Amino acid sequence: ETLVRGPGDEPAADILGQVTEANRYSFDQACRIKALELAAALGVPARAENGVSINFMPGAVYEPANCLRITLDTARRVGIPLRQIIFEVTEQERVADTGHLTRILAEYHRQGLQTAIDDFGGGYAGLGLLADFQPDILKLDMALTRNIDADPVRRAIMAGIVRMTGELGVIPVAEGIETRAEMETVAALGVFHMQGHLFARPAFEALPEPQFPRAGQERL
Residue 204 gets which letter from DSSP? Predict the structure, then answer.
């Protein structure tokens, strides 16, 4: 998953706070190009099970097919198969026109790209967006996974989401896994794709090597 950072390692919020209506489109396109170029340089396409996830800004996409052209050209140029590209829309961002968003996601599917709803359960769209469009992947917000091993309410919610994604043919991914207990609990509930600091931390222009906790080891 490609993350935005500033030249002095400033967090994403500092950078995104400088995005305006005037530069939103060019910023979004530049991030897509850089993400694909860096993924190719790091060898992401070498294994078919790998992919590169890119969060996009719905407000920067005016006409989905035209806005996607640069992305498709870049993917072909650097040798990343389209099926290995995952475009994520975050549920944290308030979207005034959900019809426009579903048209964007549908066009991405039509072009052979994967789609994901990020931060599900922690933002605005929730079940309404999922009812209008079923992505390939549903990424469950860390608000649902944090301390889930000790929280029966969160476990019940997670179990319901797992049943729902199974019926919809959507892959659930648990975000923000930080402890072995959280990992084991979400796995027991049927979520087998996870991400979080328990396995690896972000690295600058590098692919961090995933690690898995040994028996009896709560954190890495």
Answer: T
- Comparing CA positions, the residue from 140, 159, 148 lying closest to residue 184 is 148
pLDDT at 219 over 80: no
- Look at the block and give the residue holding tokens 């530069």: 23
Return the pLDDT at 3.
Answer: 82
Mean pLDDT of the chain: 87
* pLDDT above 90 coverage of the chain, percent: 47
Do 142 and 176 meet the contact criterion of CB atoms below 8 Å apart?
A: yes
Domain count, the chain: 2
**Is pLDDT larger for residue 93 or for residue 114?**
114
Average of pLDDT values for 137-151? 96
The reply to whether 76 and 168 lie within a common domain is no
Cα 83 → chain centroid? 15
Q: What's the pTM? A: 0.86
Residue found by looking up tokens 């990424």 in the block:
139
Q: What is the 3-state secondary structure (H, E, C) of 149-191?
A: HHCHHHHHHHHHHHHHHHHHCCEEEECCCCCHHHHHHHHHCCC
pLDDT for position 212: 73
- Please give the biggest Cα pair distance in the chain: 52
Q: How far is the C-alpha of 155 from the C-alpha of 157, rounded, in Å?
A: 5
The amino acid at residue 30 is A
Is 11 in a helix, a strand, or coil?
coil
Q: Are residues 128 and 144 in the same domain?
A: no
Q: Which of 135, 154, 187 is the last residue of a domain?
A: 135
Query: From the centroid of its chain, how far is CA 164?
Result: 19
